[in-house]
Amino acid sequence: MSGVYRDLAPVHDTTRVPVTVIEPDGHARGGIVVLHESREFTDPLLDMMRSLADDGWTVLAPDLFHRTNGAQADKVFGDDLFADFDACFDWLIGHGVFRDCVGVLGFDSAGTAALLVATSRPIGAAVSIAAPGIDSPLTPQADALVHAAPKLKAPWLGLYSEDDPVTPPHHVEQLRDAAARAAVATLVVSYPGLHHRPDHPGFDRDAFDDDAVIDAQTRIFDWFDSHLR
Fold this sequence. Notes:
Number of strands: 8
Protein name: Dienelactone hydrolase family
Keywords: Hydrolase
Pfam family, one: DLH
Helix content: 25-40%
GO molecular function: hydrolase activity
Oligomer: single chain
InterPro entries: AB_hydrolase_fold, Dienelactn_hydro, Dienelactone_hydrolase-like
CATH topology: Rossmann fold
């Protein structure tokens, strides 16, 4: 059984970012930083994190909202995002993970953050799920993904829904073209419906298309397997 515990990762400005850690049994083959929008972990998200740990990765999820002091901010970008990611990166390195064996996984606006991290940080791979802000920035501290994607420095996988009004298909196609100009491997996959998101609260496997769920999860695992070496 994978071990789960909480820790604090020092940030350069003397603050500390709270992190939830799930470790594999035995030696870790690398580390994955999971970025997420919620201040709480849903059971489906925790299940996915445990599955990554069962696959041999140390999984580290920071509380991206630890600076808000109760404010209702729901997106963290700019210097705060990079500082918190760097703290997680350093935590993993300090626990024996090699620099090129660190990956990042993000959902929704945190998926946008994961792509932006992969444009400026020395990581091994990145995965974004349903990342918005494709044609225009989500916040003044973020870049539109069509502008950021050609600057990717780590292999990046993007998973989208064809029926998500936040990320319409023509925007996803623009992102696919932009990512293809990067100097690293990229792949953008679109699924019909909204049936590939087992990380969502209230996920009922019987109510979803199992093939889409399995394909999406398999691609995530295979992406990290292929590039975190």
